[in-house]
Amino acid sequence: MTIKAIVFDAYGTLFDVQSVAAITEETFPGYGDIITQIWRIKQLEYSWLRSLMGRYADFSTITRESLAYALRCLGLTHDVATFDRIMAKYLHLDLYPDANATLTALKDRKLAILSNGSSDMLNALVRNSGLDRVLDATISIDAKRMFKPHPDAYSLIEERLGTPPADVLFVSSNPWDACGAKAYGLTVAWIERVTPEAMALECVKSDVVTPLTMFKALRMQMDELGLVPDHRIRALSDLPKLVAAS
Amino acid sequence: MTIKAIVFDAYGTLFDVQSVAAITEETFPGYGDIITQIWRIKQLEYSWLRSLMGRYADFSTITRESLAYALRCLGLTHDVATFDRIMAKYLHLDLYPDANATLTALKDRKLAILSNGSSDMLNALVRNSGLDRVLDATISIDAKRMFKPHPDAYSLIEERLGTPPADVLFVSSNPWDACGAKAYGLTVAWIERVTPEAMALECVKSDVVTPLTMFKALRMQMDELGLVPDHRIRALSDLPKLVAAS
Description:
Two copies of one chain form a homodimer. Chain A folds into two domains: 5-16 and 92-245, HAD superfamily/HAD-like (Rossmann fold, 3-Layer(aba) Sandwich); 18-91, Putative phosphatase, domain 2 (DNA polymerase, domain 1). Chain A contains eleven helices and eight strands. The first copy, chain A, has helices at 21-27, 32-53, 59-73, 80-89, 99-105, 119-129, 151-161, 175-184, 196-202, 211-219, 239-245; strands at 5-8, 15-16, 94-95, 110-115, 137-140, 168-172, 187-191, 231-233. In chain A, helix 6 (119-129) links the parallel strand 4 and strand 5 (137-140). In chain A, helix 1 (21-27) crosses helix 2 and helix 2 (32-53) runs parallel beside helix 10 (211-219).
């Protein structure tokens, strides 16, 4: 294939959603990790459920609602200022350490983000991280009012970049997103940050697990959806070699 | 309202999906609980993801795929016979202890199941549990090739029973299902088997949780989807009084 554009998922792929754990732990000592995991799992669920119910709300709303859920189900009371301070971290998520160098190395192709995030969230995130210097486009699914993995969401790549699916490499660490992109007809590189072997070792006992282990078990292993990504890589930094060889 | 028909969700509402834990624990000692929880969480995710991707597969397939996922991510090897033996339990799930008496007490209304399960699975389950004696209809969403909470799934109630949404009481313990039914326009009774207070007490520490606690946190608290069920009850046995008062 000729890769003319490389399109990245944002949350969990370029940006580390686990990086909210510092602020949740600081705000609610002892609960940082479990808040972070329940928040992320419900955030994704709500994006799928609202899409299915035909009750779209933008990702900013969904992110607030899923945080509210996490705090409520843990019995953690809070005021508006505390809530907003945690939410603000979502506009300042940490980049994965290899994100900047990888994007810079790929600069001879068209580079974009396609994300469930609302335009406001994504633009702030990209500006705050400095990625606006290397990206050609930041595409929010907001225009379609359907979250990934609905095909309408992926159709925005061709609409916005003018690059047909056959010339696009889509990169995501989210298994469901890699499958959705594959189902749509994109070439897909899935970032497998936790191997099955490492995962199995973490789950040697079932009576207790850490919330992060449960999250990894639920969200970081390739899903059984009858779809297989074209490439499995271990980190963003594996991409330049893969692209050069394609 | 005049309640002419009472329609029940099956998995988690009439039938205890946690009752697979005995066979998973017997088969993989020490792993029974975590297999059960990952299996159920992924089963639901796959129903939503496949609906969104436009890649419908029936619930029997999804149930197999989610079990395969759970075993793989825990590093548990198995042969076909073992796998099939665990799967077979899904056709023999335990009824909640108050299910039979509740349905019998409500027998003067039309009684039905509306479930994500495939027709084959549901018919076997209903027959094996003896519920066929009290139910007027067992409706699978299979005919629509869209899982709940998509509106097409709930539209089957009127299609099959001839009862308009205004005359239906829909009963589910699954928060996302209660919300989906409410969004569609049904009157909804949500069974809150775990109160927020009990949940918060279980999650007093975030460094370790049991898989079952994580499941309850993710799946048994009312979701933040901008929808509120008409009734909150604590058990199926609360229904006859609620229906009599309506």
